[in-house]
Amino acid sequence: MWNIPLNELCKAIGYNELNNMPRMPDLSNLLNEDADIEREKNLQFKKVFLDEIFYMVIEIKPLLNEAMEYLYNQETGNVATEAEQKAANESKTLVNMVCNLFRLEKEGANFPTLKVDAAIHAAVIMDKMRNFTANDYYDFRHAQAAVPYCDYFFTEKNLKYLLTINSLAFDKEYNCEIASAPKDVQRALEGVGA
Fold this sequence. Notes:
65% of the residues lie in helices and 3% in strands. It has 194 residues and is mainly alpha-helical. It has one domain. The radius of gyration is 20 Å and the shape is globular.
């Protein structure tokens, strides 16, 4: 598939099918309403960031439980009983543990995609001159998938700004060159082959 031009893939899938694919709903108005409420509280960045971590950990709790079950099985050779699985799903221990890692700044290199996403959301909330846009959902996902794991991330100016401001500085933390200007992208790409 890597060798098939995008146009050929689109033809194979069918343009009508592509147009009818489900799209992420535009949540920007809802996010902006929540951001306005948070901005009125005059909170510090760390508080907003930790709140975002909490909401995101709640969302991924089933995945965290599944990961813990897998690790338990790998370590002990045992499978969690149905009662143990139910207790884990109802418990807040795992959520509290992950949130406390961030609160105490002990997360280290763990949970980088969670950290990037929560920090970007917090940065937008803290910036009274910026609102969420419909495309942010996709842009933020690209950033969280690339910045912690790649040497380069090419994006638009606004996202580059968010990722590199002093409160985040993900370019430095993850040693990822983040560029938006075409000349900077070209320079980075020329350096890759050198």
